[in-house]
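Progress narrative, work stream C.
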Amino acid sequence: MKTKTVITAAAALALSTALVACSGGGDQGGGGGGNATNCTNEIPKKDLPTVTMWAWYPNMELVVDNFNEQNDEVQVCWTNVGQGSDEYDKFQTAITAGTGAPDVIMIEADRIPTFQIQESLADLSELGYEDVKDDYSEGAWKDVSVGDGVYGVPVDGGPMGMIYRKDLFEQYGITPPTTWAEYEAAAQKMKDAGGPLFGDHGANVPAVTMALQYQAGAQPFTYDSASPENIGIELNDDASKQVLDYWAGLVEKGLVGTQDQFTPEYISGVIGGDYATYISAAWAPGYLTGAGVGEGEDAGVWGVAPLPQWDPANPVYVNWGGSAFSVTSQASDPELAAKVAFGVYADEASLTDGWQNQVIFPLNLNALNSPEFEEYEVPFFGGQQANKEVYVPAANAYTGMTYTPFGQYYYDAFTEQLAEINEGSITGSEAADRLQADVTAYAEEQGFTVE
């Protein structure tokens, strides 16, 4: 099978999953030729060359202004063309057309392989990577790499922890569980005492389950850009089945709910005390605050503890979410674009604004390990030093994950199996076997050789 076949398949996949197919041409502030038109920001040094950028961080205008004011070599023309899938759809259209992409683009880490296999991202390993390599952890770099190539500059991440209701734990005499066995025991204790659900197993957050499988020792995918036609898929190994059977058991016993997350119904339940815990990432306080959690009667009741472990003798720390700045293959000056990707959102003022306003969880070690960040008393957690106690140690110990170039299909297929688990129609092990068969067949249809 030829590499081009896989690239074509990946392009077809991205287009098939697009919600909206829109042009990403110059009127969008794009143009890999440095066409700096319709910038959202003002460019103060108009005599300098410009690099176009698409990004959706809420404080991006401030970040770009900071970069432009401090830089005498290049200026950034920034546009927000949409968040997540909206941006990806426009980028995919530009890839297909061969024109219209920006020089630099914000991409979530798990989407990088999808665009890398289409040869639409530049390898940064020869464009300044060595100069900033020590500013980020090994795990942060692995998440934005495919094989030996580096295809993004990590900005924010999602080290995971267990958010919990301090009032409910106190009421039912529960201390934060340190293992998943303790988590189930605490859930049973709360239920036996007439308490609420201990947590939630939403089918629409398969990335959480994938992270917990990694924590248990699973390696769902092996993929290397040096052999783009080959992929390893192992979704029904013992560790993967262990995790799925565990959560299926919690659901069957009525210890956790099955509500889809990121929905009004779920948030209403969180505010109303229907769940004692929320297994999530370091960005969750910002999301929850924006959704109205932590106000009124539930203000000051939230705490956070390290994620429970499968094997406390061999703790493993995992991540959910995070994004990076990538240089596109349409960049007219890749070296100049790389200077922007490496330099924007890397200065102290931008990083501080990002984490203080809960826009990002910084992966830049200059911010991550700074006393100011570590000792910050997080308002959502009632002044708890959550970074120092939970998130920074998890981020520093995280070793990274390997993502697949057809991540959207995998997540959709996984969601279907998780929904069946929640309905009680299949066991966790059966779901793992079905997922293995489904994703393997899909990969082969797309021209991959499954190892």
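Work stream C, second folded protein:
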Amino acid sequence: MAKRAFDVLVALLGLLVLAVPGMCLALAIKLDSPGPVFFRQERVGRGGRLFRIHKFRTMRVDAERAGQLTVGDDQRITRVGHWLRARRLDELPQLIDVLVGSMSLVGPRPEVPRYVALYPADLRAVVLSVRPGITDPASLAFRNEGEQLAAAADPEREYVEVILPAKLAAAAHYAAQASLLRDVGVLLRTVRVLLRG
């Protein structure tokens, strides 16, 4: 109950504070490339329920036809998209998802159904027992995931066999010990990482 109240309060404050900067980012996205401001994609949430995540669009509108993994200096990323991704500003609209209850500020990052289908049954139950989040310990550990995938001979295999299992283990550890105090610690670490670039 305290975690949800904290999520709603911070999401509301965040959306209010970021309203004007958000409109400026939206305008930059529209001027940079044709297409919608927001990117929406089906993800798997708490209890296995599907929801559509909100992000600022950072790629061309037809980007998903070439696959769902973003590898290194992906040519599908727009000019403004590069700037947004470097600062993680594309994630800001997920405050909307937090407000409506699909997500939390802190929790395992929500995956697309095709990768959730690869979760071992025991880990799936644990990871999906909590709301997915905007940030979590695994996100901080793998903040340079795109570069790791770019260096791999087979990015898809690298993600499925190396990165995904490590993320799942970290997510399961978080879910088993989730608390408001721990969430605040993860948020502070996230802010520190973002400020350091």
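Residues 2-196 form one domain. No further action is required on this item.
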